[in-house]
């Protein structure tokens, strides 16, 4: 059991959360978990399966569903492409799911399918990566987008002495969350870091091998590169693996958003100084509670609606149906062993 000090709207003390990833999730299947039956029937659809980040959010969702005696499953595509989630949404609709909880690979491509789900009475919660707001009831956001962007810029600036060429290795080209963070990082760099030049942005599609290859290509095409920001847990882990055995280790800095378990060895071997993330398990847990509150009619997604999210306490729906989890945490040599996810 490790503590995760995510900021909570309620100001409650950070609670201990179990980060065991021992659910036997499949790396490439389309249906990777099941749970007990109950009133609220919830289907999680991550960007793709086989990503430890979404394994952790799945753990949180499943834990919440157990607490409120709902039924829970996670299904999803193996590839994080714009419309790869559509067939899973359609199936959940046909099965009469109470709620779909989805991280979108594209803000629009799944819109029609989600609209059909809602017309059929299924509630829609986006989490992690939003659609256009018209397609869902609430969006459970991991942390404030400006804060996430600012943190990554701060970390790369620190790592390269606020000077030199940097590149971004992102997830899928249409991913709503990454694209918003990238836009905000570009703004922040331009306004506050005149010595840093963003020379390239490439996309690894949240696929390990593609991200690894894109890292190699970046380093080849930009011989003066000083740093890489990867705002995706898949990308940063693949980039770290590449750097750790290359001539660039210790010379080209890497930061971004990663899971401590995937990044531990690269922090310890000096490839990466620091990176950031929130608790994906808490994010799944909160999203499942939001889905339950929508199904039961406790909330409709209106600004000011409040609901209880188990051990995380009470949350209030903000403007545009937004529910915020908390602040990102920075990980480095000094604290990485305190986390297990
Ligand atoms: C990957 C996914 C996810 C993102 C994290 C940081 O796991 O792209 O959407 O929130 O990285």
Keywords:
Rossmann fold, binds alpha-L-rhamnopyranose, 7-stranded mixed beta sheet, single chain, disordered N terminus, 2 domains, 4-stranded parallel beta sheet, alpha/beta, 341 residues, 21% strand
Architecture blueprint of SSEs:
Blueprint: E1 2-3, E2 16-17, E3 31-34, E4 41-45, H1 52-67, E5 71-75, H2 86-94, E6 99-102, H3 111-119, E7 123-127, E8 138-141, H4 145-159, E9 164-170, H5 176-192, E10 196-203, H6 208-221, E11 225-230, H7 233-244, E12 253-256, H8 260-268, E13 274-277, H9 280-295, E14 306-308, E15 314-316, E16 322-324, E17 329-332
Parallel strand pairs: 4-5, 4-6, 6-7, 7-8, 8-16, 9-10, 9-11, 11-12
Antiparallel strand pairs: 1-2, 3-5, 13-17, 14-15
Structure description:
The chain is of the alpha/beta class. It folds into two domains: 4-142 and 279-326, Response regulator (Rossmann fold, 3-Layer(aba) Sandwich), CATH 3.40.50; 145-277, Response regulator (Rossmann fold), CATH 3.40.50.2300. It is built from nine helices and 17 strands. The strands form five sheets. Strands 3-5-4-6-7-8-16 form a seven-stranded mixed beta sheet, with helices on both faces. Strands 10-9-11-12 form a four-stranded parallel beta sheet, with helices on both faces. Helix 1 (52-67) links the parallel strand 4 and strand 5. Helix 1 (52-67) packs across helix 9, helix 4 (145-159) packs across helix 5 (176-192) and helix 6 (208-221) packs across helix 7. The relative contact order is 0.17. The structure holds alpha-L-rhamnopyranose. Alpha-L-rhamnopyranose binds at residues 47, 51, 53, 103, 128-129, 171, 175, 177, 206, 232-234, 257. Alpha-L-rhamnopyranose is lined by residues 47, 51, 53, 103, 128-129, 171, 175, 177, 206, 232-234, 257.
């Amino acid at each position: 059991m490790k503590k995760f000090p995510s900021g909570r709207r309620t100001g409650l003390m950070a609670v201990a959360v179990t980060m065991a990833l021992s659910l036997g999730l499949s790396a490439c299947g389309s249906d990777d978990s099941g749970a007990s039956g109950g009133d609220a029937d919830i289907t999680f659809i991550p960007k793709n399966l086989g990503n430890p980040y979404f394994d952790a959010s799945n753990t949180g969702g499943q834990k919440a569903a157990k607490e409120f005696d709902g039924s829970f499953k996670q299904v999803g595509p193996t590839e994080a492409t714009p419309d790869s989630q559509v067939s899973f949404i359609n199936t959940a609709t046909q099965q009469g799911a109470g709620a779909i909880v989805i991280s979108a690979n594209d803000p629009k491509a799944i819109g029609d399918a989600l609209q059909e789900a809602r017309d059929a009475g299924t509630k829609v919660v986006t989490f992690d990566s939003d659609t256009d707001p018209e397609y869902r009831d609430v969006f459970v956001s991991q942390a404030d987008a400006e804060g996430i962007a600012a943190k990554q810029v701060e970390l790369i600036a620190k790592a390269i002495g606020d000077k030199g060429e940097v590149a971004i290795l992102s997830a899928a080209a249409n991913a709503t969350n990454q694209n918003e963070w990238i836009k905000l990082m570009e703004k922040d760099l331009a306004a506050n870091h005149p010595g840093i030049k963003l020379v390239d942005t490439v996309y690894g599609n949240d696929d390990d091998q593609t991200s690894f290859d894109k890292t190699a290509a970046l380093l080849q095409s930009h011989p003066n590169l000083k740093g890489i920001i990867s705002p995706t847990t898949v990308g940063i882990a693949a980039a770290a693996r590449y750097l750790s055995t290359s001539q660039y280790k210790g010379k080209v800095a890497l930061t971004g958003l990663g899971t401590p378990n995937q990044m531990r060895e690269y922090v310890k071997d000096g490839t990466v100084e620091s990176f950031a993330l929130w608790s994906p398990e808490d994010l799944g847990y909160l999203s499942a509670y939001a889905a339950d509150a929508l199904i039961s009619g406790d909330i409709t997604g209106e600004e000011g609606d409040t609901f209880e999210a188990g051990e995380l306490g009470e949350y209030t729906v903000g403007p545009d149906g937004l529910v915020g989890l908390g602040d990102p945490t920075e990980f480095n040599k000094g604290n990485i062993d305190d986390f297990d996810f």
